[in-house]
Amino acid sequence: MPHPPLEPLSLPLDRAGWLSFAGERPAERLARVAEIDRRLVAETALTTSERLDLWNDADIALAEAAAPSHLLSECHPDSDVRAAAEAQAQAIDAAQARRLLDRDLWHVFSDADAAGLDAAQQRLLDHLRRDFRRGGVDLDDAGRARVQELADRDTALSQTFSRHIREGRREIRVPAASLEGLPADFLAEHPADDEAMVTLTTEYTDLMPVREYARDISVRHALVGAYNDLAWPENEAVLADLLAVRAERAALLGYGDWADYETETRMIGSSAEVRAFLDRVAEAVAPAAASEYARVLERLRRDEPDATEVTIADFWYLLSALKREEYDVDAQLVRSYFRFDRVLDGVLATTARLLDVEYVPVDAPSWHDDVRTYDVVRAGERLGRIHLDLHPRDGKYNHAACFGLVPGITGHALPEGALLCNFSRGLLEHDEVVTFFHEFGHLVHDILGGHHRWASFTGIATEWDFVEAPSQLLEEWAWDAEVLASFAVNDEGRAIPADLVARMRTADAFGRALEVTRQLGHATTSYRLHVERPTDLQAAVDGYYRSASPVTPLPGSHSYAGFGHLTGYGACYYTYQWSLVIARDLLSAFAGDLFDVETALRYRREILEPGGTRDARDLVEAFLGRESTFDAYRDWLAGA
Ligand SMILES: [Zn+2]
Question: Which among 76, 25, 165, 152 is positioned nearest to 566, based on CA atoms?
Answer without folding.
Answer: 165
